[in-house]
Design brief:
InterPro entries: Acyl_CoA_acyltransferase, GNAT_dom. The protein is an alpha+beta fold and 174 residues long. The chain has 6 helices and 7 strands, in the order βααααβββαβαββ. The protein has a domain of 116 residues: Gcn5-related N-acetyltransferase (GNAT) (Aminopeptidase, 3-Layer(aba) Sandwich), CATH 3.40.630.30. It is globular and about 40 Å long. It starts with 8 loop residues before the first strand and ends with a strand.
Length: 174
């Protein structure tokens, strides 16, 4: 049985009812640097995305899940992207939307659940993530889950006219 339930949160598939939440996340300019977003998304495009969110990870090479509280409040999103079945690896990213919900262990628990799912059910050999050098919270989160900093990409992302470095972290399932 696949368990994507933790003690404080659970991970669930996207639903049509998530339109307003996903719209708010995708159009929050304060997190565009994390997601490499350049322009706002319309509700129409997000509605189309949600209509296709049921597609299999092997087909679309990605999976987005909602980090939800047990009172069914969406807290954030967690993604598997660049799913490469041949090499058994994928990228992973997480965002807890509101700052008031951060530093409460929700991200840690969501990440643990997705790591377990990726290794035990998807059969992946490794996960990786890209984190801005300035994002100390994410560096700590991923490091505490066993991810290893394997490199620094210099001047990797241009943000507001300035170039920023980005770390590459890996977690290999031994």
């Amino acid at each position: 049985m696949i368990t994507l339930k933790g003690s404080e949160i659970y991970l669930r598939a996207l639903e049509p009812e998530d339109l307003e939440f996903v719209y708010a996340v995708e159009n929050d300019e304060s997190v565009w640097e994390i997601s490499n977003t350049q322009t706002p998304y319309s509700k129409f495009l997000i509605k189309q995305y949600l209509e296709n969110a049921h597609k299999d990870i092997f087909e679309v090479k990605q999976l987005r899940l909602v980090v939800s509280s047990y009172d069914n409040r969406p807290l954030g999103l967690i993604d598997i992207f660049d799913f490469d079945f041949k090499n058994r690896r994928a990228g992973i990213g997480i965002l807890i939307k509101d700052s008031k919900d951060r530093d409460k262990g929700y991200g840690r628990e969501a990440l643990q659940l997705l790591i377990n799912y990726s290794f035990s059910h998807l059969g992946l050999h490794q996960l990786y993530c890209n984190i801005s050098e300035e994002n100390k919270g994410s560096v700590k989160l991923f490091t505490n889950q066993g991810f290893v900093n394997v490199g620094l990409k210099k001047d990797w992302n241009q943000v507001n006219g300035a170039y920023k470095n980005e770390y590459l972290f890996q977690l290999i399932n031994n």
